[in-house]
Amino acid sequence: MKFIMDMVHDNPGEPRFVTKFRNPETLVEFGFNTQVFRQTNTAVSFEKLGDVIFDGDGKKWLQNMQSVSRDEICAAHSKGLMTMCHIDLFVLPALLYQKYKKEICDESGNISIFKEKTKEIHRVMFDELFEKYPIDGLIIRVGETYLHDTPYHVGNGAVGYGNPDEEKKAFTELIGFLREEICVRHGKFLIFRTWDYYPDKFHSNKEYYLDVTNCIEPHEKLFFSIKYTALDFWRYVKTNPCLGEGKHKQIIEVQCQREYEGKGAYPMYNMQGVIEGFPETGEKKGIKDIIKSGKISGIYVWSRGGGWMGPYIKNEFWCELNAYVICRYAGDTSKTEKEIFLSFCKEKMGLDEKNAEAFYKACLKVPEAVLHGRYISAYDKHLNGTKMPSANWIRDDRIAGLHKDLNEVFDCLEAKNSVEDAIEEKKNAVRLWKEIKADFEKISIPNAELKDFILNSAEYAIRFFSIISVAFQIFAKCRKSEDVTDLLKEYDKLWEKYKETQLFPDAATLYYDDYLFEEQKRGLGDTIEYCRAHLCHKNINGR
User: Which of 228, 269, 358, 476 meets the CB 3.0–4.6 Å disulfide criterion with 363?
Assistant: First the structure.
């Protein structure tokens, strides 16, 4: 493939990850040919405009950003890697925005692509980017705008969502402008990401995708980058129907540290499903099938990052395994996923053939254990990829409680008489994790520290999903206002045992019992406290 790209996506607003995947030598060793950097557009001074855009602390921040960006890009080039910069549009310095607000904004106050001054300012930005930094092209995202690490910038999405016809006009105007400025005028690569939040818009609606892209003249340096899943990187979501379609070349996006699967805190191997297809979708279609379309020119890998917050890992082994397999597959699609996995076992783990085979078989059980532990098959299999599975009740390092969307899930389970099936599924997940750990114990791994980590990460999974299993039993009884005294005792003991994983060398941080983005952070802990107050035997009987 033309592009085998890797990016480290640090958590917005947090310190950068300490990771080997920032080292260009690691990327070359794995087989990547392109390193992707983020937010390099914020290192532009706009000095050609003749205005004071940065002053005081802002100027110091800019100088540091410029120095870091230049050093990292040059280091990548020195190792023979192409370099791409992933940027959000529109993001501009706050002082520049204030000065030109009337000339670049629409009536709602958002920066608009239909304003000539907006285009002029971005021409200046592209000129300075390509003059000052040896980058080979840009990856453009418009679906989300992150300003958490750019204290002297403001911005908004380049396309406002609401009226589909107006959205398509804005996409067409924007991409046409970017094609002319980046591909034609500067001779650089433009990779336009179609990512958005919606199942019926640019990212995963084939008709919408073709309506937009058919209006754009192809160019040898223009590509569209699309996640391989129709929504986010969830299970029970089908392959993106836009891949392999249209008249433009495409890039497939793959995440190695999925926030919906533990981020590497516990065993996390998903590349067989990514390449071959996950069975739960009912279509068994993976990227190997998409590549046959002839439209695919690359793989865009996030070796680290995605989502928000934790769990925070100290050992990158599981991310490294996923990154190695997808990278080597992109480099030679004639090889099978299994061949590449076994090569990792030999090259990175020092395993002989027998133990490599055993490790492979054990790792193939991991996706099933994850599926049964985190998802709810009785609910999810009927969604048909139209909304987030299981109400996204576990993500990053947060666990939801019995309220809002999770109540909707239980409404469905009760209506289908499937509550006991869901409870049994969670128990089965724990049994699977114990089986996986037992399999790992039988494998001879020369590196004793690595074996300890693998076993400890499996134990982390056992203890975590044991909590999840009991929580589900509590949810079911809570919905019926039944006594949960004994279950709460078990729940408390399991949390104490789970906390002891922090004594393991290289242990990942713990999950929290509140929930990300929820009002007042209501989560699992909120439900448990309600049960303590209302559904313990002593409370039910007035004692």
Answer: 269
